Amino acid sequence: MELRFVKKQVICSVCFLLTVGLIAGFSLNATAAETIKVGLLETFSGPFEFGGRLHAAGVKFAVDEQNAKGGLLGRKIELITEDTEFKPDVATRKAKKLILEDKVNLLCQGFGAPISIALNRVATEYKTLYINYAGAADELQGKEFSRYAFRVCQTTYALSKGMVKYLATKPYRRFYLINQDFASGRDTSARFKENLKASIPDAVIVGEDFHPFNLKDFGPYITKIMAAKPDIIFTSNFGTDLTNLISQARAFGLKAPFPFAATFIADPYPLNELKDDAVGIYYAHMYSLRVKTPENENMIARFHGQHKTDKDFLTWWPFGNIGQVILGMQMAFAAIEKAGSLDPEKIIQTFEGFEYKTPVGLWSMRACDHQLIMPMFGGTIEGGPNPFFNGSIRSDVKFPWEGPNLVTIRANEVTIPATPSYNPRCK
Q1: In 55, 97, 101, 108, which residue has its Cα 20 to 30 A from 275's Cα atom?
Q2: Crossing angle for the helix pair 320-339 and 49-68, nearest 10 degrees?
Q3: Do the domain assignments include residue 308?
Q4: What does each C-alpha distance from 401 to 235, 304, 405 come to in angstroms?
Q5: Is residue 236 within 8 Å of 258, Cβ to Cβ?
């Protein structure tokens, strides 16, 4: 009787242990199967929706490649997208929704400095990691700094300093500045003047204007510009404000090769719209299809392999902004892998001072202000053969493109100085 009782106890104990083990196993498997959620906030509607599409293409490529390697920390990455409508209040509301309802592990965004500022504040409030891959306004990592935000792209300082460094090799001395009237436009203009004085001491600013977004008629501004008789016009405009400015200036008589210096010209949309009016425009950027390294050419080929049948030529190749988004997100994923955790505090500790070898040079994350330090490239839009777009997929797609001769500008020459007046953490 006692023997039967003991056997029964043993059997029950074994069953209990097996059940616990199975439950634990299911629990572990469920945990391992959980995705890492990334909240992508971009402008997918309105006049600047192209910015959301091109940035999303870069993020998706980086995510797909990370997932193909086995995911991030052994878990697949899931993208959840939201349309900011290019409005900071909408971006704030949707970012909170992503954090509180969708339970995302991190946020990413880049189109529109006012939206990036709003997301810095959300990141601080909810202690959520935010990767900024395109918001360039200097104040983002200065007075609007969030220790939960990391900028993996150039600043307005870098854009203007890179442009000035490139233009210092040219004969122009009379400059006219015209930019969009918002944080990034004003920052870029201020930095351009500051850097111009340092690099080209005999340069003269003969005029400066700030105009509203999505301006249709640049006539009054162009009249002022022509009266000032500049050697060259500098602008950080993007989208329709860029194409309208240049095409209307050409129509008024500032024909090519009258020079423009434009920080965001090397995109297929404006170049396709401007055609020969774009020839001779100077640009400076942190990424170029023309960087001749095996790693960059390999990445370009992989991206093109995925997108060569896209109906829209905007995403055929990982030009400028798409390229910077891909590399910025890859750097962020590499930092998270090194941290070995999704805990924002552990990621912050790892990301500060983190170095990452990209296909276009060594990038490093400055600890005091979470600002990327990277080289830049100066170039000229040229006519003639365009090996990337002209006839590569459709015979009707033909426009000038970045010339093959780049000037590399070293990282230490274009990095915004780490001073306490810029960010109190930089001592």
Answers
A1: 55
A2: 40
A3: no
A4: 18, 17, 12
A5: no
In a domain, 362, yes or no: no
For residues 334 and 415, give the distance between their C-alpha atoms in angstroms, rounded to a whole number.
Answer: 22
- Give strand pairing partners of 285: 377
Query: What ranges in 214-276 are assigned the alpha helix state H?
Result: 219-228, 240-251, 268-274
pLDDT of residue 365: 98
Query: Rounded to whole angstroms, how far apart are CA atoms 39 and 100?
Result: 11
Please state, in angstroms and rounded to a whole number, the distance separating the CA atoms of residues 291 and 293. Answer: 6
Distance between CA atoms of residues 309 and 120, nearest Å = 36
DSSP single-letter state for residue 138:
G
Which pLDDT score is estimated for 24? 42
Nearest in space to 173 (alpha carbons), one of 148, 205, 139:
205
Give 357: exposed, middle or buried? Use CB within 10 Å, 0-12, 13-18, 19+. Answer: exposed
Token pair recorded at residue 57: 């293409």
The pLDDT assigned to 391 comes to: 72
Alpha-carbon distance of 47 to 43, in angstroms, equals 9
CA angle 178/180/184 to nearest 5° reads 110
Kindly write down the DSSP assignment for every residue of 406-422, as one continuous string: -EEE-HHHHSPP--TTT
Reduced to 3 states (helix: H, G, I; strand: E, B; else coil), residue 254 is: coil
> What pLDDT score does 394 carry?
77
Domain that holds residue 8: 1-30
Burial 121-150 (b: 16+ CB within 10 A, else e): bbbbebebbbbbbbbbbbbbbbebbbbbbb
User: In DSSP terms, which residues pair with 177 in a beta bridge?
Assistant: 208, 234
Q: pLDDT under 50 in the chain at which residues?
A: 1-8, 10-32
Residue 216: helix, strand or coil by DSSP?
Answer: coil
Would 21 be classed as within a structural domain?
yes
Q: How many domains does the chain have?
A: 1
Pair 97, 28: CB distance under 8 Å: no
d(CA 328, CA 340): 19
Sequence letter at residue 167:
L
| Token digits of residue 407 | 């000037």
CA separation, residue 69 to residues 63, 179, 234, 426 (Å): 10, 42, 43, 37
Whether 63 maps to a domain, the answer reads no
pLDDT of residue 257: 83
pLDDT of residue 33: 53
